[in-house]
Design brief:
This protein has 13 helices and two strands. It has about 290 residues and is an all-alpha fold. It has a two-stranded antiparallel ribbon. Strand 1 and strand 2 form a beta hairpin. The chain is globular and about 60 Å long.
């Protein structure tokens, strides 16, 4: 397959295409990507306010290490690394940290899936060919199912957090859910989630605009959402850093948006998006490790 390796002429074409990116936009996209970790840390501070006085620095470091672990390890293990690191750097118990991460993912799911619902309802979702199969109907059905699931999960978790008693080993986990019964904190966390995904969409769009001459077309913000949506699905496959699956997902999206795009150009854009999304975090992660902050 095209993502199994780049040799000979293919690698030469890739290097040539990559040099046509707008360097200024790529630098700005990188800055915004790193800034998104600050929003994640701020949101996490709201989520954990009831269970421990975690400093912003400890939340930032734990966020960076968790996202870095996700870029290197399979099965999203960084979601476990993150609350573990926070429990070592702050009074927030590991169980409460895990609960807060689950709430985060529910908020993420609601925002992204609601955006998908609006996108699909507008008629903007194109045919997404993978071989002879059109993925678009599957994505719509799957999106509706997942949205229903996360909307049901919220009241279930809120009910659990309000129970008068629970097994001792779940006490810290239940403490991490207390935000669900605080309307102001709930609203702030949700707004932070909207801001986070808006920023993620913008810096992904900037990469696509930076490679406008390579892609051969101007990608709109809604088109960037499609690329981001499929890239996230590729990351969900569970390979370390989404290698292979991420690139295939970007290929499907870009071919749907620009049917005549050259495959080597897709490779160039997919690799830059992948590095930005998954490996930019290694810059602050290495710094914090070398500085002894972990």
């Amino acid at each position: 397959s095209w993502h199994s390796g780049l040799t000979g002429r293919a690698s030469t074409e890739l290097a040539a295409a990559a040099t046509h990116g707008n360097a200024g936009l790529l630098v700005l996209a990188t800055v915004l990507c790193i800034s998104s970790f600050a929003i994640r840390a701020w949101r996490w501070r709201i989520l954990t306010a009831d269970v421990g006085a975690a400093t912003f620095r400890s939340l930032w470091v734990a966020t960076i290490m968790g996202v870095a672990a996700n870029s290197l390890l399979p099965a999203r293990l960084g979601e476990v690394v993150r609350p573990y690191v926070l429990s070592r750097l702050s009074p927030v118990p590991f169980g409460a940290g895990v609960a807060s991460v689950i709430v985060e993912r529910i908020f993420d799911g609601i925002v992204v899936l609601a955006a998908l619902a609006v996108y699909a309802a507008s008629g903007a979702l194109p045919s997404l060919k993978y071989g002879e199969h059109d993925l678009a109907p599957d994505i719509q059905r799957g999106g509706v199912g997942l949205l229903v699931f996360v909307l049901v999960a919220l009241p279930v978790l809120a009910w659990f957090s309000a129970r008068p008693s629970c097994p001792p080993w779940l006490l810290n986990f239940r403490r991490g859910l207390e935000l669900l019964r605080r309307p102001r904190a709930f609203a702030l966390s949700f707004l932070a989630t909207v801001a986070l995904w808006s920023l993620i969409l913008v810096y992904n769009w900037m990469v696509l605009v930076a490679f406008e001459s390579v892609i051969g077309a101007t990608i709109s913000l809604s088109g960037a959402f499609l690329v981001l949506l499929l890239a996230m699905m590729g990351l969900g496959v569970g390979t370390p850093g989404g290698i292979g699956s991420f690139h295939t997902a970007v290929l499907i999206a870009l071919v749907a948006l620009v049917p005549n795009i050259h495959q080597s150009n897709v490779q160039a854009v997919a690799i830059v998006l992948h590095v930005l999304s998954m490996y930019t975090v290694l810059i602050p992660a290495v710094f914090h490790v070398l500085a002894g902050h972990v």
